[in-house]
Amino acid sequence: MNRKDKLQKMHDKRLKRYQAKTKTSNKPRYICKADRAKAEAQELLNSEEVSDT
Fold first, then answer.
1. pTM of the model
2. In what helix (H) or strand (E) does residue 50 lie, and over which residues does it extend?
3. How far is the C-alpha of 10 from the C-alpha of 25, rounded, in Å?
């Protein structure tokens, strides 16, 4: 492998690593089923308290 190819591969590898590190995801964070049920129950209680007053 000649010198230019080697340097180009090193540069591409570093660039790929940098881009992977700085990439942010638009996907929402996963919440497990139990936590979703707990949050839904809590919100239901809050809405009942607001409607009672």
1. 0.45
2. helix 33-52
3. 26
